[in-house]
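The records we work with from here on pair a chain with its fold. Each token is a code from a learned vocabulary of local backbone shapes. A record is reproduced here so that you can trace the correspondence yourselves:

_____
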Amino acid sequence: MERELKLELLQDRVEPLLGLPLLSSSRVKPPHRDRLVSTYFDTPDLDFRRAHASLRVRQAGKHFVQTLKTAGTQHGGVYEREEYEHAISGSTPDLSALRDEVPEGTALGMLLRDGALAGCLSPIFITDVERTVMRLRLRQGDEVELAVDRGVIRANGATAPIRELELEIQAGQPAQLSALALQLLDVMPMRLSRASKGDHGYALVVDEPDVVVRAQPLKLADDDSTEAAFLRIARNCLAQISGNERCVIHGINPEGVHQMRVGLRRLRSALDLFRPLLACPPALEAELRWIADQLGPARDWEVLATSTLPDAFSDAPEDVGADAVVAAAEAVSAHDRQVAAHAVDSERYTRLILTLSHWLASAGWRQDAGEAQRVELAAPVRAFARTILRKRQRKLLKRGRGMAKLDEHKRHRARIAAKKLRYATAFFDALLPAKKAGRYREHLGHLQDDLGWLNDMTVAQTLLRRLAAGRRKLATGCGYARGSIAGRVGADKEELRCLWKRFKAASLPA
């Protein structure tokens, strides 16, 4: 299993980095440089790419090394993936060596055992880099390989630059990768690398849309400790956050902003849920709030432009000026997506994710935990889950009394309680009886969705007032939309009352 952290250098000069006392005092031997030319192979149908893998033959001098890598997982800048590497005699792949190592029952294993595969392979793109490598032994005894790559990717007459720093754990704890990266970030401008060299190369070959990443199911077991469960949940949230970075930065698909924001909300909810047993550093929580605030406006304006306004104007007269209002909202949404993109592509965001990754990997909460907290963290998670779900249930029932008659402020508090309960139920879903949990989630989900819609309507009223301010041409259309929204909110009271009644009748499956 390969574990490496990849960062993108923002300047060509790396001598100041390589000459740092931090590195020179830790290196096992002087750095060395090599020219590495790697040819990536695939079929005309890009079968390796579709199997989430890459196959390359790298030449260094007179030597050839074949490497097959799986996509694995990537979060917080850290890649964890399977790697199969062999010295071979020439510049074309030798599949026989790979068939002995890759499991036969996997999609990749079946591809490698296709007798016609070797005849279909051809070069797809080439990476040509100068690599400077330094072996480090850190103060704690961990060993890390630091590599700086500068060069180019070539495919179909197109090129893309390579300026990367890779930190790969050789011996010791992966947590040291993010700790070292944070120290290097103090002296060298860098940002997270969100794509491998293979990803960049394939991007020159085929137009691949950015993938929107949604929350993946969590697999907790009854005998998981409470601490282990927290780590699984937090890393699941981080994977959703990290998985949508490229989508947000490219600013084309607004769903990426939404899903990254959902990942942040889930993570912050998890931190709140486990707060009695472990405390997130206040500075880290403040940075999580910062990036959430950078994403929020883009999502709010996107909902207004693409959902709320089309519904509000569905029966509007032609002279209301609906198109102008929608166009103005879309323009603000596009601007705010760029603000979000700039934030996610910033050094500040890189520092945030590295800090979060290090805190999780090093279990940074242990140093401040008392004996009682340590005992609870080591205990099976099931009892903790039951206690938390009951507390969240009681809070929602208390805040939601007379739900259909609540004012905006109190309804907002009830919505937050419903959202936190829904996240907690999803986190611990694998520990709950499936049939009862399914019915409960359905009723809770319908309630929370309606409360979320009502919150969108409240936000829309604020945004429409802001949109009309100082723009006389939009005043009529904004006024019409606000009236339409108010009417729809009023008509929803009976639906909200029924949803609340059904939820109260559902029993907590804990």
Q: What stands out?
A: Residues 170 and 316 are 65 Å apart (CA to CA). DSSP finds 20 helices and eleven strands in the chain. The first helix runs from residue 15 to 18.
